Amino acid sequence: MAPRPTQRRPRAIATLREHDVHADLHWEINALDPQNWSSRKRWLHTLTAAAVTYTITFASSIVSPARYEFESHFKISPTAATLPFGLFVLGLAIGPFIARPCSAVFGHKSIYIIFLPLFAIFTLASGLVHTSYGLILCRLLAGLFASPVISAGCETLSDIWKPEERTLPLTVYYAAPLLGPMTGVLVGGFVTQHLNGRWTQFVVLFAFAACVVPIIFVSETSKVIILLRKQGTSAWVPPSLATLSKALLEPLLVLFTTPAILLISLYSSINIAVMYASLAAFPNVFHSFDLGTQGLTFLGMIIGSILALAFLALNHLILYKSRVAYWKEGKTAAAERAMAAKRRTNRSSHQSNVSNFSRPNFKRNTSHTSLAMSLKRMTTSPSAPPVIDQDRNVNLAVAAANYLNSLPVNEGRRILPERIQLLLNKNPAYGDLCTSLESYHLKLDRIQFANVLVDALPTAIAPAQSSLSVCAPQSALARSKSLHRSAAAAALDAPAKDAASHSDESWPFPAAPPQRMSYVEPQPIAHPPPAWRLWPALPASILLVASLFMFGWTAQSPGTSWVAPCFAMGIFAFAIMCTFVTTQLYIMDRHVEKDDDGSSALAGGIVLRYSMSFAFVMFAEQMYDALGAGWATSVFAFVALVTGVVPWVLVLRG
């Protein structure tokens, strides 16, 4: 009979998107986790994302000084001449609706690779077109294709930095969306004056060229995409409708269903919108200056922003970190006192010495049961002093050292078995042993580590000295190993289960009741209050209002030097930078316990921020022409005065 040809079984589409469960469970110690990269690599990715965001926001405002040339060259109205500036900003507001679904399917790096070349193409087209309609359309499309990159940058930083490490990287990154528009107006004034308005787009391409090489070498940071590529999944699988709808609608749902996030995003968005309106209208105040000199007036805003960055860094290093450290010490001490009180209560209320996984004919201090009882912590201490089994400890120490040295995150540490044996000779509880190893900055998975130690036990029990050797030693050892693993999993991964679920009918002894267990699960230390992030925003909210009043009325007064409004612009930029960075940090800390790490709330903030900026840009110049510099700027000041109560309320009320 001829052999039946083997048919290749078609692989179901659903299985292509199944992730590596083991890698997912042990992601925190996986070398592929971006948070386990070296500090240098993470900073390079941070600076690359910041440089790209700076280039995009630089491109948004560089055409603002050229609108007078567009008005005369294309014979269009002042409002139409402002559209190349305003519609680019409007395009940035659409970014999260494109970036999040694409990131869920292709990953974050693909966003850079796909959309940045499209941004460059339409920027080039903006400099080559000869009609006003073509210019407006190309600028809109350039902003539209650049917007997903800004949203992907926020998600990238959420992936590569842990919550306790992200303050300084995020401060650097969030400086880019403010410094970009300020320098864009400065450079655009000189380029338009000495060349023409078309060359403003070519200058953007030069800045983009400097970002091309770093973008090519960035690594993927999305956990889902990394795990899929690790499995060798190369076929494209269409995502489910639920995945796309969640990625598409979640930013708006988080924004409009969380009052604190909505209020702080609205406050930050209004401040950024006022800044964009100033870029469009403030040059009218210095109408006696040429375009290049008008751009130089924004140098005060750039200096103010840089000083704000220094202030925020010092605030973090000197005030915030010290207070958080003091707060964590207090929380840790309170948790330890609560655990000690609970142990004392259990010790006084339960008099039985039977562990949930021990049996009546077991000797408590023999080598084959001591690790099991340490995993679940006996109710009371044994009356006899603990027996130190040196042979067992040697085998356990060697197995533990081999396991720790095999982890990529511990590469180069050279863990010696002798050091671990010193810890084992103290007969520590399993949790205390893991805590001691982690205090030396070693990474381990506690369930996996427990299995490694259990596998080393049969070697230590090889001599027929165990009480189990009288009855079936092999089956007893197998059951003992199974119970060890069950105890480890119950203690470390999930609430304790009834021991009866781990036994079978051949086991002659009933399981001990679960209420006799006295293991106290340590509670994780919570994160400090997010409202602490807003402290720098409190004085900044006052400076913001004062600087707007100062600029408006010093600019309108004919006898006042130009230095006074420029100084007010510097204070204004200082306040804007402080409020913007701190509000973004606050939003991320509010969502630090969630899976999206705050990226959904930040994406909703991007939509609100650039939508309001578009509206403010379009009416700012007309408002200044109608009301004058004094009252027009005062309108912005009154709005900032009303919204400025938001950080005060969140700090005082939480």
Descriptive overview:
Helix 6 (about 95-105) packs across helix 8 and helix 17 (about 390-405) packs across helix 18 (about 415-425). It is elongated, with a radius of gyration of 32 Å. It has 25 helices and no strands. It is mainly alpha-helical. It starts with 12 loop residues before the first helix and ends with a helix. It has two domains: about 15-330 and about 525-654, Growth Hormone, Chain: A; about 360-515, no CATH class.
What layout of secondary structure does this protein have?
Blueprint: H1 13-16, H2 21-25, H3 39-61, H4 67-74, H5 78-93, H6 95-106, H7 108-128, H8 132-160, H9 167-194, H10 199-216, H11 223-230, H12 241-257, H13 259-285, H14 291-296, H15 299-349, H16 367-376, H17 390-406, H18 417-424, H19 430-439, H20 446-460, H21 473-492, H22 537-556, H23 563-590, H24 599-643, H25 645-653
Helix pairs in contact: 3-8, 3-9, 3-10, 4-5, 5-8, 5-24, 6-7, 6-8, 6-12, 7-8, 7-10, 8-24, 9-15, 9-23, 12-13, 12-24, 13-23, 13-24, 15-23, 16-21, 17-18, 17-20, 20-21, 22-23, 22-24
Membrane topology: Multi-pass membrane protein
Subcellular location: Membrane
Protein name: Major facilitator superfamily (MFS) profile domain-containing protein
